[in-house]
């Protein structure tokens, strides 16, 4: 039994559980009341707000608790757009935002606003220059996730925030996937997050609005949470959320390194173990625990079912619509294969042996699904002798790419070329070459020196 | 230590606590996922929905879980208004609805809709005929609470629902205060409730939309909860909410009778123990655990503070704005005294001895606050010999009122007249007479036969 879907919901952290239990007894009363139970609830709420604000890196009076990350996004976008309505009604989002952001954008557009979607590259990254290009006189708000929920790619938030700041446009950062790992860098204006992504309980989101940001809460509000999140505070869960955020942060550096090594194994070995697989997401600028790949000729639901039978809980396609298994908007925006998509997102504490067993089980599982579907026989896995190694260490681009192009005809179709390079540019150029030449970029692997970029000959 | 503010938030029921603990381990995963943890979460969610629907008296697919009762009200009103936008944009609410309803009405009005407020009588009751009168060709929705949150008065929901049904207008019932005691009678169309009012956890509300009611969810939505409540489901709390609703219902009949007797003691004795007190709310058609009274010449905040020092947690003024202690819109709509207002709302299991001690402590507390405030010396509490008893048993109205009017001059100013009557009309007529003649209607007390209506001579 291995739960590898932390990007959907992390199991409750032990500190969250303890804090929740303690505050069930201390924190059930209305914090707006003047009597002792109310004052006690108020103290717990204030302390939770201080702790969460410290973890975010903001003032306590800039942070309110919402009932979910989704609610935080909806309220944050609607409030920021309304607060700057005099400036204009133009909203910028990336094409790979969480559905809560895109749904908000849809509502804005339906109400007469305009929306620009900033495209991403094949790794799922936005280019800050594209945000700069999208900014207009009438731009009321820009939104950018800190890291993508489906492929783990980290976005250049600080750079985009700086560009927005110069243009006088607030940037809202959806930090749902990253806040447990650390604060969001840069001079952002609004931030949202979700406790159950970091091991806190469900039922708690964060909405941070920096002082000085024009904000006008929309819809009916009340006196709770500075008028930004109506309804009785879910206090025991809020206390648990704040306590667990501190706890996961204390463990974040060590756990990030450990998980990063485990996901690197998956990134590197899946393409060698399974034919016709595309590992997607940025190979370096990525969340520690997330790795996503797509398998040609595989039905995502069938693969999930088989993996579940083998004891692995993973996600497929869009994280928000996986019950219907519609194609993921993220994978489409990246222009990568979306069929047979598997997202492995390791929770804190994920066991190495579970990852190893996953790698053992996966090839047979994929093969079985392909066979059931009567898929065309995939190119056979290249034998060791079909791997050709190009040593481009110490050589600058475009040499590694040129050397790759020279040798690709020397391996049979289905065979592999490993390009060893220590030039950072190769990381972008080799996949780009594959795209242009219709060859398959399998992925990268750590090497003794530099990185090995693996390419499979397709044509 | 006695917590008498269950109408704000009830302490967590032991069944809620147990269910919450159990589902922290079983119900943290995403119920939209296909793997085992997701399926387990889905089963818990489905079972909770079935249980809640059974308690409400609706189909499971008519009920969604929201993040609070307030959210349920906001979503319910907005969705019902939008669903019937072609019919018109007229909304009917009572003047004594919870602030979440009134805030929704404000937003609707600000967006160009029209709102009619139906007035209440001095007991806080709406007259069904007034709803009938308010219904128009362009009425999209009517709202009526099942029982008032501040004074406990139960509303004639079934009668109003019938009138609305005949007019083809959906009725939304805010059942936050009553759902723990029993299902809402009548042919209503939408219903909302809040788990922490019945001893469930915070973070859970219910929104029921009957099949056939036109409903168009507003704002950004997602695929969760039938598209009516976006954001990750707060599953452990939902499970606890449903389990505790069943549990409180099993105890409801016996506990209602017990609490009704305790609040009847307060209703009857406070006016005898404390001078210049008005007990408000309907004397008979009322929630079992709620009793509200107002003390002339008393500052509500100071009184709450003194009662808190004595170990009693009660509420004052509007239950929704008590942190600011603005005058309650409910008491104003009723036309009753709002200064020095105290709402006692007994939680299930409230101890008789705590109620007795409250009655012991209250007179001195009120007197101390009055003295501190330098209030004009209140009329002294009538001595026993200043009480004049009129026996109108077996006599029909208007005889009891006539006999009262004959003898009021026989007691000194500040003295009391007790009118014994078994005619139901006296319950309305005697207070009405007091209003007209500027005499003080102190309240009613159970008598050996019939009821004693107590009047203090003022002029």
Care to count the β-strands of chain A? 16
Widest sheet of chain A: strand order? 2-8-7-6-5-3-4
Rg value of chain A: 23 Å
As residue ranges, the low-confidence spans of chain A are 318-323, 377-383
Which fold name corresponds to the CATH topology of the domain at 10-248 in chain A? Aspartate Aminotransferase, domain 2
Order of helices and strands of chain A: EHHEHEHEHEHEEEHEEHEHEHEHEHEE
Name of the CATH homologous superfamily of the domain at 10-248 in chain A: Type I PLP-dependent aspartate aminotransferase-like (Major domain)
Q: Oligomerization state of this entry?
A: homodimer
Number of helices of chain A: 12
Chain pair with largest interface:
A-B, 69 and 69 residues
The coarse overall form of chain A would be globular
- Would you identify the CATH architecture of the domain at 10-248 in chain A? 3-Layer(aba) Sandwich
Tell me about the biggest sheet of chain A? 7 strands, mixed
The average pLDDT score of chain A comes to: 90
What helical percentage do the residues of chain A reach?
Answer: 25-40%
How widely separated are the two ends of chain A?
40 Å
- The CATH class of the domain at 10-248 in chain A turns out to be Alpha Beta
Structure class of chain A? alpha/beta
Coiled coil (chains A, B): 242-269
Catalytic activity (chains A, B): (sulfur carrier)-H + L-cysteine = (sulfur carrier)-SH + L-alanine
GO molecular function, one term (chains A, B): transaminase activity
Pfam families (chains A, B): Aminotran_5 (PF00266), TusA (PF01206)
């Amino acid at each position: 039994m291995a739960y590898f879907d932390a990007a959907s919901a992390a199991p409750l952290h032990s500190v969250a559980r303890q804090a929740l239990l303690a505050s069930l007894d201390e924190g059930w009363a209305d914090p707006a009341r003047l009597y002792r139970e109310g004052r006690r609830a108020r103290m717990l709420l204030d302390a939770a707000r201080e702790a969460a604000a410290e973890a975010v890196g903001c003032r306590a009076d800039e942070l309110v608790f919402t009932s979910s990350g989704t609610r935080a996004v909806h309220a944050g976008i609607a409030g920021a757009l309304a607060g700057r309505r005099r400036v204009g009604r133009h909203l910028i989002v990336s094409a790979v935002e969480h559905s809560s952001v895109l749904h908000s954008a849809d509502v804005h557009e339906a109400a007469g606003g305009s929306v620009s979607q900033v495209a991403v590259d094949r790794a799922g990254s936005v280019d800050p220059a594209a945000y700069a290009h999208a900014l207009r006189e009438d731009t009321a708000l820009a939104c950018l996730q800190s890291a993508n929920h489906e492929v783990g790619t980290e976005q250049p938030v600080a750079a985009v925030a700086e560009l927005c700041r110069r243009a006088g446009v607030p940037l809202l950062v959806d930090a749902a996937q990253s806040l447990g790992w650390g604060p969001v860098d840069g001079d952002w204006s609004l931030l949202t997050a979700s406790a159950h992504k970091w091991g806190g309980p469900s039922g708690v989101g964060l909405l941070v609005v920096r002082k000085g940001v024009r904000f006008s809460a929309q819809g009916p509000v009340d006196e709770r949470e500075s008028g930004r999140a109506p309804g009785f505070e879910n206090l025991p869960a809020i206390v648990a959320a704040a306590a667990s955020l501190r706890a996961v942060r204390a463990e974040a550096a060590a756990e990030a390194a450990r998980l990063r090594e485990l996901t690197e194994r998956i990134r590197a070995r899946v393409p060698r173990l399974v034919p016709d697989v595309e590992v997607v997401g940025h190979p370096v600028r990525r969340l520690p625990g997330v790795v996503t790949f797509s398998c040609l000729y595989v039905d995502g639901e069938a693969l999930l079912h088989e993996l579940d039978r083998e004891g692995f809980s993973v996600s497929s396609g869009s994280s928000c619509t996986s019950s219907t298994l519609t194609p993921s908007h993220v994978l489409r925006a990246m222009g990568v294969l979306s069929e047979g998509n598997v997202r492995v997102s390791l929770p804190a504490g994920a066991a190495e042996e579970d990852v190893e067993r996953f790698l053992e089980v996966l090839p047979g599982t994929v093969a079985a699904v392909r066979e059931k579907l009567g898929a065309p026989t995939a190119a056979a896995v290249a034998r060791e002798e079909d791997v050709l190694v190009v040593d481009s260490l110490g050589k600058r681009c475009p040499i590694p790419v040129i050397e790759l192009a020279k040798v690709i005809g020397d391996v049979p179709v289905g065979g592999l070329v490993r390009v060893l390079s220590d030039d950072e540019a190769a990381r972008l150029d080799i996949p780009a070459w594959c795209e242009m030449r219709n060859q398959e970029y399998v992925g990268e692997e750590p090497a003794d020196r530099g990185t090995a970029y693996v390419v499979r000959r397709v044509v």
